[in-house]
Amino acid sequence: MTHPSDQRAYFFKIDTTIKRIRYALQKRFTDAGYDLTVDQWVLIDHLHRNPGISQNQLGELTTKDAPTVTRIIDLLTKKNLAERRLADADRRKFLISLTPAGEQLYDELLPLVVEIRRQGWGQLSDEDYQHFTRIMDSIYQNFSA
Questions:
Q1: What is the pLDDT of residue 1?
Q2: Rounded to whole angstroms, how far apart are CA atoms 134 and 112?
């Protein structure tokens, strides 16, 4: 018997939707005059919510590999948006935080991000969101075993 997912390219739908959202958000940043990529925003968002997080933890939260996280942190540091400091307990570990300029940028960009989220969600209901997250969580878990 054929499984329903055998004939449906659900990954393609997920991938193209993510690309469309990323494009819309990047365009919004650029049109508003911000020199920031969506990947940089993702790290800024996580640093805002987790100040003093290690680079390894940041990579796990954002599902980005270590070289990518390092490269983005380097860029954010050069832009004076983030800073590294050595951990007191482990001098081999860096803890990353936003600078005051990074926090200010977060506050400026959050309304643009919320606007994109609302645009994407459109007229879908809270119940739709619950179904969506349940399905996405199930797919994620199917690949976590």
A1: 63
A2: 26
